[in-house]
Amino acid sequence: MTEIYLDHAATSPMHPEVIDAMVAVMNDVYGNPSSIHGIGRHARKYLDNARGFIARSIGAKDHEIVLTSGGSEADNLAIFGTAYAHQNEGRHIITTQVEHHAVLRACERLEKEGFDVTYLPVDKHGMIAIDDFKRALRDDTILVTIMYGNNEVGTKQPIAEIGALLKDHTATFHTDAVQAFGLEKIDVDALGVDLLSTSAHKLNGPKGIGFLYERPKAHLQSLIVGGDQERKRRASTENVPAVVGFAKAVELAQSSMEEKATEYARYRQMLLSAFDEAGIAYHVNGDALHALPHVLNVSFNGMDVESFLINLDIEGIAVSSGSACTAGSLEPSHVLLAMYGKGAEELRNSIRFSFGYGLDSAQIKRAAQTVIGIVKRLTK
Question: Boundaries of each Aminotransferase class V domain copy (predicted)?
Fold first, then answer.
């Protein structure tokens, strides 16, 4: 039985061209980019070229890219780095109830350290209200951290609008764009963000590498100390093969962005049309108009998510019930909880399908029929 992977929002398979690029570097480039001899300078050339390409992909400059071990570290550096660097100017932070846990748990730790955090609510589509944001913004707000697009339901937040509102405010504006990078055209100046987090493994790159975009005026306190790498912002010898692989993944993603959006929209419609034709009861969680193209979160009436996932796995269909970082946990999704409230059926019957590299229409059709068969069997 061939497995069908519909959990690309959790992680994505590495593209063969990314693997080839990394293997070539692993074979030929072994120097430390900080070394001044020829072998070190050779490694530095690969590092600088990859960094430059990554920077240009979001309209940034080379020196504004801080390489990290992934999205969680980038989020932590943005949040803790800003809070500690600016705590004498204020101690108020604004975020949302539906952020990734890398953001939420960082904010919760800062609360224990005496910072004041406002968690903006969302509506039933997972969207914040701009009026709520305006009311929350204060003179002592030093950080606003709001995700670009949600990893569980796909809803995109009004980042550019928030950026415009903060133009004349001293607060640093961070967005977690881990789920959106490679699927959405991102320009940091158009968005008005000061900090932006990404991760390579969400766009068919290697795990263990990401970056934080930092506008020079943001001013962060380093969290990892040691050498002077990353302009003294993040100590540790750079992983040159991983950075090269990341840049290749970005190149491939950007060259097929529009094509992928069209393809994923077709997959989404294929699934929903099959559910409609089968007459099963369901509804989509999230905002259909303002959503990432690859995420489809569906609530199936009368289903139990635990037995649903087990049956799908037995049939070779890999999906998720929520955030990958809480995999193995049967606690309700904090995103759906924020959207629907305690006791809502959606907390117990929702499945996330997410699309990506390697899928085709035949797999989507088979997945749809498998889901339909399980739903009919378990809701008898």
Answer: 4-366
